[in-house]
Amino acid sequence: MGKFKDKVVLVTGGSRGLGKAMSIGFAAEGAIVIISSRKQDNCTALAETIIQQGGRAIGIGANFGKIEDIDSLAEKVMAEYGRLDILINNAGTNIAFGELNSLTPEQFDKMYQINLRGPWYTASRFAPKMAAAGGGAIINIITVGALRPPALNGFYAATKVGLEALTKVMAQEWAADGIRVNAIAPGPYRSDLVNASIDTIPGFEEGMRDSTLLKRIAESEEILNPVFYLASESNTTGITLVADGGYMASA
Ligand SMILES: NC(=O)c1ccc[n+]([C@@H]2O[C@H](COP(=O)([O-])OP(=O)(O)OC[C@H]3O[C@@H](n4cnc5c(N)ncnc54)[C@H](OP(=O)(O)O)[C@@H]3O)[C@@H](O)[C@H]2O)c1
After folding, report:
1. CB–CB of 51/45 below 8 Å?
2. What pLDDT, on the 0 to 100 scale, is given for residue 197?
3. Is 116 contained in some domain?
4. 4 alpha carbon to ligand 1 midpoint, in Å?
5. Which among 12, 52, 78, 98 has the fewest CB atoms less than 10 Å away?
6. Which residue's alpha carbon is nearest to atom 25 within ligand 1?
7. Counting beta carbons within 10 angstroms of the beta carbon of residue 116, is it exposed (0 to 12), middle (13 to 18) or buried (19 or more)?
8. Which residues are catalytic?
9. Is residue 44 part of a domain?
10. pLDDT at 250
11. 123: domain range?
């Protein structure tokens, strides 16, 4: 049967890391999963793996930093399925690690386009469709680093705390349409994004691990419990659910 049987779910950045875990996890619970990221081949490959395992999925390439890609994706989803029940705004990037006075306007613009403008535009394109179908659920993936911004991660924290603000506004503006909108603030989870920082920044892995009360970096699959809770719970909107292993750094 499955907790999300026949629900149409879009996972942005669904081909790797936390998004991949969510794509596989929703499909295992009976959902029809739309996997979207920049690299069409990766989306298609994961969709084929899910289908081979008895699930339902499709890969549709899109760069969430580009408005025209999001418009095209929305058209394809509506043409194929006629509705979207659950949107997971997960695609995100961190290409600007360093002191604020060393970062560039180009880095700022790219971070803003992918981490903040993309989720806003994607949610705004699908919300009227969800409303017309009687409602839906939107989950915006931020980071605990947005709630306790650490040094050297200014643009990442700023774009993600902006998304938390938009989450609360979306929840207010779309509640009457039956759309619940919440955010999840993860701490450290193993993924390509985190592994890249582990490989390139000396002490990153130890720092991440030691910054949590649980003294470990979580596996990607551990994001499923909080995501499933917010995707299925019927009376929660406008919150940020923190799933961070007890992150204590730089309050
Ligand atoms: N892992 C953590 O510890 C952690 C902690 C807090 C928050 N987060 C947040 O969780 C989300 C997922 O992170 P992750 O660690 O799983 O990252 P990841 O391993 O780097 O995976 C990122 C995913 O997003 C896609 N993507 C990146 N830029 C994109 C773009 N412009 N348009 C479309 N897709 C794009 C990537 O695929 P393509 O390369 O094919 O585009 C990939 O599927 C992010 O929003 C991140 O900020 C992660």
Report:
1. no
2. 85
3. yes
4. 23
5. 52
6. 13
7. buried
8. 156
9. yes
10. 39
11. 8-243
- Is the CB of 64 within 6 Å of ligand 1? yes
The response to whether residue 155 sits with its C-beta less than 6 Å from ligand 1 reads: no
Concatenate the DSSP letters of all residues of 183-205 into one string.
EEEE--B-SHHHHHHHHHSTTHH
Write the burial class of residue 141 (CB in 10 Å: 0-12 exposed, 13-18 middle, 19+ buried).
buried
Q: Is 187 left (phi over 0), alpha (psi -120 to 50) or beta?
A: beta
> Tokens 């605990």 appear where?
144
Phi, psi of 15 (to 5 degrees): -95, -20
What is the best residue among 10, 40, 90, 114 to mutate for testing ligand 1's pocket, by most ligand atoms within 8 Å of CB? Answer: 90
Mutation to probe ligand 1, out of 11, 16, 87, 209 (largest number of atoms < 8 A from CB): 16
* Residue 13 φ then ψ, to 5°: 60, 35
CATH number, domain of 88, equals: 3.40.50.720
In a domain, 2, yes or no: no
Closest ligand 1 atom to 195 CA: 19
How many CA atoms lie less than 13 Å away from 217 in the CB half-sphere? Answer: 17
Q: Which ranges of the chain have pLDDT less than 50?
A: 250-251
Look at residue 226 in the predicted model and tell me its pLDDT.
98
How many angstroms separate the CA atoms of 57 and 35, rounded? 7
Could you tell me the distance, in angstroms and rounded to a whole number, from the CA of residue 129 to the centre of ligand 1? 25
* Number of domains comprising the chain: 1
250 within some domain: no
CB 67 within 8 A of CB 121: yes
What's the chain's length in residues? 251
Query: Does 189 sit in the ligand 1 pocket, CB within 6 Å?
Result: yes
Q: Which atom of ligand 1 is nearest to the CA of 190?
A: 1
